[in-house]
Amino acid sequence: MSFRKRRGVRLSYNRQGLVHFTCLDYRNQPTEVRRKIRELCRSAGGEYSEALFEALTTDRSAVQICQRHYIASPTTLYEMRRKFYERW
């Protein structure tokens, strides 16, 4: 698994990496960090907060997640992810 900077997100490479790997390691995070991730998913994802949570905490592809959660386009998921990162 490798990490690449997301072009549309207005955070530095290091900050994006911190958020990315913190979310992927969700199960091992302290309660406060897990709560923060859940709350940011709710605020950035709205009705698709569970899809956003899955996108951030698993290695599943955006297409798989969109199909599973009935999201019309991966672009919607990417936009929610951008909001999540920038609100972190």
What report would you give on this structure?
The protein has 88 residues and is mostly helical. The protein has 5 helices and no strands. α2 packs across α5.
Topology diagram in text:
Blueprint lengths: L12 H12 L6 H15 L3 H9 L4 H8 L4 H14 L1
Low-confidence stretches: none
Number of helical segments with 4 or more residues: 5
- Categorize the overall geometry: globular
Percent of residues in β-strands: under 5%
* Distance linking N and C termini: 22 Å
Write down the overall mean pLDDT.
Answer: 95
Report the radius of gyration as a whole number of Å.
12 Å
Structural class: mainly alpha
Tell me how many strands there are: 0
The largest sheet is: none
Query: Helix share of residues?
Result: 55-70%
User: What's the order of the H and E elements?
Assistant: HHHHH
Which key phrases capture this entry?
single chain, 0% strand, mainly alpha, 88 residues, 5 helices
Summarize the structure.
This protein is mainly α and about 90 residues long. Helix content is about 65%, strand content about 0%.
